[in-house]
Amino acid sequence: MIPFLTHQASMWSKHIRILRALVFREATTRYGRDNIGLLWIVGEPAIFAIGVMIMWSFIRPPYDRGLRLLPFLMTGYLPLLLIRHMVSQGINCALVNANLLYHRQITILHLFIARAVMEFIGNSMSSAIIVGASIVLGLIDPPRSVATVINGWFLLAYMSFGLTIILGSCVGITEAVEKFANLLTYILIPVSGAFYMVDWVPYRYRELVLKIPFVNCMEMIRDGFFGDSYPTYYSVGYAFISATVMILVGLVIMQFVRNRVQLE
């Protein structure tokens, strides 16, 4: 038993070292070491989010259906950025890093995880800074349940990773999928729940809307912010199972990618 545990610990340690090196390589390759360098991991999502929220504050009233505009936007657009950045930055990582696969210890899954971790860290830190600064400035109220917000955020990242490895593996097989993948990230803007609440949907269509897995994560995050002050609808179990199925499907497709990208 002890030799087995020792072997498992050694294997996990090896994977962690590989992922740490790949994350650092991804970050320095994209952002470089000059000027603010790695701080762009946080700064880039923050610039997008702040710009959109400022624009919306000029064209929309301060309240919409009983909700303050700014916290509604934050709880929609910041999670949407997490989805779009994880998917759009991850779908082509197998192709652009194909040369790394000649190292037999590095797998395609390592590449996907490293890219996802970097995007998750950057978006999480920038979102925390934006939300924290807004609370300090009195622009929004603190979340009613920080634990629910965090759990919803992690569940959303888990789901986004599942979509990423499905699309990324398909792109590794045929690059034509990349155009469809980019289109899908735009389709997610209106359907993901980022800019509407399920409570706004006519009752007879709510069950249909909640079949969209990402909507459940959005509602969970908003439940953490608004609590009982505004009705939310979601199923943690359905969202988790949907995300897990997506990841399993992606892992199956991934088995056909390594030889394909190494032959390019």
What layout of secondary structure does this protein have?
Elements: H1 2-31, H2 40-59, E1 63-64, E2 67-68, H3 69-90, H4 93-96, H5 108-136, H6 146-173, H7 177-191, H8 203-209, H9 213-226, H10 236-254, H11 258-262
Antiparallel strand pairs: 1-2
How would you summarize what this structure contains?
This protein has helices spanning 2-31, 40-59, 69-90, 93-96, 108-136, 146-173, 177-191, 203-209, 213-226, 236-254, 258-262, and strands at 63-64, 67-68.
Number of domains: 1
Low-confidence stretches: none
Residues in helix, % = over 70%
Give me the strand/helix succession.
HHEEHHHHHHHHH
Cα-atom radius of gyration: 20 Å
Strand content: under 5%
Strand arrangement, major sheet: 1-2
Secondary structure category: mainly alpha
Average pLDDT, all residues: 84
Measured between the Cα atoms of the first and last residue, the distance is: 43 Å
The biggest sheet amounts to: 2 strands, antiparallel
Described by the principal axes of the CA atoms, the overall outline is globular
Oligomer: single chain
Based on DSSP secondary structure assignment, what is the total number of beta strands? 2
What is the number of helices? Answer: 11
Note down, in words, how this protein is organized.
The chain has 264 residues and is mainly α. It has one domain (39-262). It is 73% helix and 2% strand. It contains eleven helices and two strands, in the order H-H-E-E-H-H-H-H-H-H-H-H-H. The protein has helices at 2-31, 40-59, 69-90, 93-96, 108-136, 146-173, 177-191, 203-209, 213-226, 236-254, 258-262, and strands at residues 63-64, 67-68. A two-stranded antiparallel sheet has the order 1-2. The protein is globular and about 55 Å long.
